Amino acid sequence: MEKIAALQHHDRLLIIDFGSQVTQLIARRLRELNVYCEIHPFQSVTDEFLDSFAPKAVILSGGPASVIDPGSPRPPERVFELGVPVLGICYGQQVMMQMLGGQVVRGDGTAEFGRAYVVPAASLELLDGWFTTEREQVWMSHGDHVAELAPGFEVYATSPGAPFAVTADTSRNFYAVQFHPEVHHTPRGARLYENFVRTAGFAGDWTMASYRDEAVAQIRDQVGDAKVICALSGGVDSSVAAALIHEAVGDQLTCVFVDHGLLRQAEADEVVGMFRDHMNLQVIHAQEQELFLGQLDGVSDPETKRKIIGRLFIDVFQKYADQIDGARYLAQGTLYPDV
User: Are the CB atoms for 7 and 38 separated by under 8 Å?
Assistant: First the structure.
């Protein structure tokens, strides 16, 4: 099976995720600005990945770790050698300072968790139009704090607990904030992202509608006249995948719906009927209730059940996939954060 390549039609912003609970909100703010972005966990971002992805800008997310601890998450040093704007948020600010020659220390009375207010210290393009009063509300969530700036950085805004609330090295287009501009509790945080992507030179020409059109075109181009099989559960992820692929290649797609007997009453018939009768997809209804329920009979441990179900899904799907001659591609809908 071959893998469909990622879209390459727009300038791309890379979000390196260090485990923050609100990283998805960063991506949402950017997409609201019509910027194409992708979230990738720090451990998968290598020098080779950066060369392939070729980001126009990079954002370093927050995270629960402490940069002071041995083995704490880091981006590749190459991030700072790409020559593109970089924005560090909370942990992202701290890891930027630590890697570029600054110093981060434990809280010692400067930890902040909740609403805070920052005041400007100097003018900065990132802050254009952000301060509407003498101070701006933000959301802080940090124990450690920056005690010494990395060479080249200056202070542009402060708070009582974060004397380096907004810092920047404008010569390299490196920016860092201690708070979280992506959350609702930083009411005007979206303006900072707007200023950042403008500084980075994004055209703002990406939309979800264009993503659909481009995805369909790319699937059609790569699949050609080959056949595709899709694992269809009826959930949002696999349903969207099936709909996009069907729009691209029509009857070259065959979906396999595994009926394991654990669904709600009549749910299996509803799923198969919707896709087969209303959307005109080719759907194999694999009725394997006896197999699944028989294997699960008498099993009470949840982890054991999970492994049994996972193994049977693979076996059953393979059995029906083998019946489709010329199948070259496997399609699977997966929730984006789980990739």
Answer: no
> What is the number of alpha carbons within 13 Å of residue 64 lying toward its C-beta?
4
How buried is 203 (Cβ within 10 angstroms: 0-12 exposed, 13-18 middle, 19+ buried)? exposed
Mean pLDDT of 120-124: 94
Residue 1, pLDDT score: 40
Instruction: Print burial letters for 119-140: b (CB count within 10 Å at least 16), e (below 16).
Output: ebbeebebbeebbeeeebebbb
Report the DSSP pairing between strands 112-120 and 136-142.
Answer: antiparallel
Q: What is the mean pLDDT of residues 233-247?
A: 91
What are the pLDDT digits (tens) for 66-105?
999 999 999 999 999 999 999 999 999 999 999 999 998 8
Provide the pairing of β-strand 145-148 with 112-120. Answer: unpaired
Q: Are both 12-200 and 209-338 of the same fold?
A: yes
Query: What CATH homologous superfamily does 12-200 map to?
Result: Class I glutamine amidotransferase (GATase) domain (3.40.50.880)
- Helix 208-223 vs helix 236-249: crossing angle, to nearest 10: 60
User: Catalytic amino acids?
Assistant: 90, 180, 182
Domain spans of the chain, in order of start? 12-200, 209-338
**Alpha-carbon gap, residue 59 to 15, rounded angstroms:** 5
More confident residue, 121 or 4: 121
pLDDT for the residue numbered 108: 64
- Answer yes or no: CATH 3.40.50.620 is held by domain 209-338: yes
Helix residue spans in the chain (DSSP H): 23-32, 47-53, 91-100, 189-200, 208-223, 236-249, 267-273, 289-296, 302-321
pLDDT tens for each residue of 154-174: 999 998 878 899 999 999 999
Which residues make Cβ contacts (< 8 Å) with residue 235, sequence separation at least 6?
A: 333
43-61 average pLDDT score: 96
Q: Given a cut of 90, is residue 2 above it in pLDDT?
A: no
Alpha-carbon distance 305 to 297, whole Å? 10
CA-to-CA separations, 148 to 85, 87, 112, 152, 223, in angstroms, rounded: 21, 18, 18, 12, 54
